[in-house]
User: Which sequence fits this backbone?
């Protein structure tokens, strides 16, 4: 017969290992062995919050397999980018279309910006522009993007 202490120890060990494995899947830091498929954003609707002096600015982000569109005002003021995966967990955004007047001085068609994935979990995707310090976060909102209703 197996002693009760050994059974209890085994149960605690298995439970702890299960929790650790589950937690690793919920929140991970990309490593050298992680492939682009593990770093890619799932398609859908995200929200990016940018802190400002007098509050914050919410950017609505639509992600597909090929494109990332950042909307300041949905379907009116936005920037559409092509997503090109370069290496494991590194990608570039190539500007394809700009309708947001506040970005016309700082962005242009064909502009390439390089990013590296910093952290991933089920509902948050953090990435950083290469050679910059600021971390950008996208919070997953759901599968469907709320396009403006045109009457």
Assistant:
């Amino acid at each position: 017969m197996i002693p009760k202490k050994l059974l209890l120890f085994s149960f605690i060990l298995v439970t702890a290992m299960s929790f650790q494995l589950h937690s690793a899947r919920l929140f991970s830091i990309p490593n050298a062995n992680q492939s682009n498929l593990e770093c890619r954003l799932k398609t859908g609707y995200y929200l990016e919050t940018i802190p400002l002096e007098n509050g914050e600015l919410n950017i609505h982000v639509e992600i597909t397999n090929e494109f990332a569109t950042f909307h300041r005002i949905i379907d009116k003021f936005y920037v559409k980018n092509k997503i090109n995966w370069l290496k494991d967990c590194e990608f570039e955004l190539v500007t394809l279309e700009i309708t947001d007047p506040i970005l016309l001085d700082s962005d242009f068609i064909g502009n390439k910006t390089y990013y590296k994935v910093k952290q991933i979990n089920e509902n948050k995707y953090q990435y950083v522009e290469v050679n910059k310090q600021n971390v950008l976060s996208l919070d997953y909102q759901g599968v469907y993007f709320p396009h403006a209703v045109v009457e």
About this structure: The longest helix spans residues 4-26. The beta strands are 27-28, 44-52, 55-63, 67-73, 77-87, 90-98, 112-121, 124-129, 135-142. Helices lie at 4-26, 36-39.
